[in-house]
Amino acid sequence: MHRLRTCAARLRPLTACQMAQSPSQPRPAQAPLRTFPQPTRHYTAPVAAEPFLNGTSSNYVEEMYYSWLENPKSVHKSWDIFFRNANAGAPPGAAYQSPLPLGGDLRGPGLGQAVVGSQPSVEKLVEDHLAVQTLIRAYQIRGHHVAQLDPLGIMDADLDSCVPTDIITSSDKLGFYGLDEADLDKVFRLPTTTFIGGNESALPLREIIRRLEMAYCQHIGVEFMFINDIDQCQWIRQKFEKPGVMQFTLEEKRTLLARMVRSTRFEEFLQRKWSSEKRFGLEGCESLIPALKTIIDKSSENGVENVIMGMPHRGRLNVLANVIRKELEQIFCQFDSKLEAADEGSGDVKYHLGMYHRRINRVTDRNITLSLVANPSHLEAVDPVVQGKTKAEQFYCGDADGKRVMSILLHGDAAFAGQGIVYETFHLSDLPSYTTHGTVHVVVNNQIGFTTDPRMARSSPYPTDVARVVNAPIFHVNADDPEAVVYVCNVAAEWRATFHKDVVVDLVCYRRNGHNEMDEPMFTQPLMYKQIRKQKGVLQKYAEKLIAEGVVTRQEYEEEISKYDKICEEAYARSKDEKILHIKHWLDSPWPGFFTLDGQPKSMSCPSTGLNEEELENIGRVASSVPEEDFTIHGGLSRILKGRAAMIQSRMVDWALGEYMAFGSLLKEGIHVRLSGQDVERGTFSHRHHVLHDQNVDKRTCIPMNHLSSNQAPYTVCNSSLSEYGVLGFELGFAMASPNALVLWEAQFGDFHNMAQCIIDQFICPGQAKWVRQNGIVLLLPHGMEGMVRAAACISFLEGWLYDCNWIVVNCSTPANYFHVLRRQILLPFRKPLIIFTPKSLLRHPEAKSSFDEMLPGTHFQRMIPDDGSTCKNPGAVKRLIFCTGKVYYELVKERRSRGMEDTVAISRIEQLSPFPFDLVKAETDKFPQAEIAWCQEEHKNQGYYDYVKPRLRTTTDQARPIWYVGRDPAAAPATGNKKAHLVELQRLLDTAFKLDAFKGHS
């Protein structure tokens, strides 16, 4: 048996890993197709070799051997002889015998007797066919390493100048496979794992090598052999290996030329008119425009009606003009130096803004909606936002398979390799609650990042290697070959339509200018830019090619240029009209009809957010039951549901029930609710339990909230990947698509939001000012110091009234107020991001409960909860008024009770921190004119709310009354992490709050 395994191993082709470890040689910069001497020998394999040669896998012999051990008649007679002789000790070269005529002895000379000198040439033939199969596989795996991808001819796209040893660059390399020049004209049967033969099943070796070079080593490099699905690999082989697949009609070539003219002349027009303006033009990758248009055309042909795009700044204006077809005058007027902030938002430059446009696709004659999402200089930050918006659009139109709505993401090479959000976004691509059923990624590979050489910017061979983690095929293409670019984009769009999985197109190009039009690239890349200065433009090269082929005449080409130049000049003249500028033209997510009612602007008032008691009881019954029959839940959960039922009976709710009431009521009103984040289905602190799990059946779950009524909106609650940046961006994009949904992201712990700070800083906080759009995303940030590493969120607040503020920040102390603020988020006539500091210990605190009376019709969210105890009977006797927010209120109340100071110390809760409730705070301070005023927080003085609250409290009070501070001293770390130290600090805080002479030096 050992000998037979050795034999099978000798016959097995090299694995990808083995080949990667083989020696390599320097790569020629632009290798032409290889030619070899012309030997004449020519023959094909005999029938005995056919069972193995007929395209089988490398494990075929080993599998056949094990079958033979079980039943010798299960294999071909010639293999039966081979295995018998090899088992008897014959070497592989002597074990083979041709089958004898009918009636002959099929066993050879005799079992257990070695065969010496029989038919060695046949064994050589088997080995040669295996070698050819291995050679074909080598090109499929590594052909992209020698493809001619760099338009400049000076760089290696994979940062490696060596040619893999198993790629045939000259006849002397045939020896690697045990072949020589004499084998070049032998005819070999082709395995079923290649399509290079077209309709032919066998080819001479010379032709096999030529066709492999044509398929894998020209201007297209294909990475796909890491994909673990044989059907997908075969699909890709067919697209690139079949002879003559990359053919274009005359009309297609003329269309491509026209698109290249628009792409190139647009940049040249901007350069002529605004030579000193930064615009991050597309020069050096003009083929991006036909690339994107091709993806959109093919996708439209396959039924896509809505395409959502995200991209960095390079080429953005060109994409707006020539892909999305934004009016040119709207782009040109953005260059007007007299523009004021009010005209263009306060926020960003023209090459960061987005738009939305519905138009006819001229190739398919179908309607298509195109939107480009606004994106800051954090280049890849928009990736998950686009995915979330795409998912939402698919959800709202019932597109469960992604056949009508899709996303296209553009990337720079350095950012694609360097920024972790790319990895986070890829890992959302196949998750059930986050998949968009395939994204086409287009990398504008400048072969440089700002001024950083790619050899200093990444450790992977290609910038696109991150895509391999999700088995996405990667098509590298020389961007100076427009036809190759269009072909791979067609294939990419077909892949997405066929398999609904991600795919990457890597446009290997260059920047004709520096990082921007004002930059001097010769400082850092002198050799590259010397070559670029000599490089003929891709439009000129392609036009000359088509003129030489007779596809167009030079006059037709020049007329096409003149026609587009005239379009630009006319738009430039119109851009001088000040009336044309309107910021609505730059919205990437319009909400038609939301801001008006019967054609008139909506009232700014908010109705009561309370519910009638019957509604509360109905939702409570669902929250405390298991709607499905024969569903076994955990014993501990049974106790939780019984506890909920008891609370409903007593007309009370805790934090989890208050949330349930808010969500359930909105669902019954037709508002979709989506809750996403790490472990949100159960809740980090095991309080929510919105998804029940059958204890006996794997993957059987029940979501009671989807059983509220027959015509309710769907409730989506989904545990996310362990990502904050990516998932928060995704949910932001989801909320962007429609104002009529409550979309919430919950951090596992409040301070985890800092991993998503880029989304908060660039999209959520300045969203309306910077991107001219509203968004109703809700962030739930568990907050509170409990003697462990703190789960707290410290955010910089901006003042303003509710409509004018940039966001709303609350720290609720009661379940009823939490209930109201969630409902208010939808009932408001506008949308603002809502930040909620949610509790930990209050989830089960016996005093943190609310009565139904606080949630009935006529009730509202309380921005501030005043002290309504015995201090109200004699306000003049109150010596101290303590303002606080959140959980610390309950600790203060407990301490006040133990000290017997209910009459002399008032405690008021500020529930809404932004916008600050100036009116209510002033009324409270005026009510206790003799009381000194203190702000109490459990956070350290340099953290939390103090620096934000102090000037606002001073604004509302008599300037003679100081604002004292009660809390921990400044510290570098947010918490001690030690329970004993925490309790000591807490007691010191409480002592300070209630010792009436303790304020010296604490203002």
UniProtKB/TrEMBL annotation:
Domain of life: Eukaryota
GO molecular function: metal ion binding; oxoglutarate dehydrogenase (succinyl-transferring) activity; thiamine pyrophosphate binding
Residue ranges occupied by any Transketolase-like pyrimidine-binding domain in the UniProt entry: 653-845
Keywords: Calcium, Glycolysis, Isopeptide bond, Magnesium, Metal-binding, Mitochondrion, Nucleus, Oxidoreductase, Thiamine pyrophosphate, Transit peptide, Ubl conjugation
Gene3D superfamilies attached to this UniProt entry: 3.40.50.12470, 3.40.50.970, Multifunctional 2-oxoglutarate metabolism enzyme, C-terminal domain, TPP helical domain
Gene Ontology biological process: glycolytic process; tricarboxylic acid cycle
Annotated localization: Mitochondrion matrix; Nucleus
SMART domains: Transket_pyr (SM00861)
Essential cofactor(s): Mg(2+); thiamine diphosphate
Record field: catalytic activity: N(6)-[(R)-lipoyl]-L-lysyl-[protein] + 2-oxoglutarate + H(+) = N(6)-[(R)-S(8)-succinyldihydrolipoyl]-L-lysyl-[protein] + CO2
Gene Ontology CC terms: mitochondrial matrix; nucleus; oxoglutarate dehydrogenase complex
Cited PANTHER family: 2-OXOGLUTARATE DEHYDROGENASE (PTHR23152), 2-OXOGLUTARATE DEHYDROGENASE COMPLEX COMPONENT E1 (PTHR23152:SF7)
Identification of the protein by name: 2-oxoglutarate dehydrogenase complex component E1
Native source organism of the sequence: Scleropages formosus
Protein encoded by which gene: OGDH
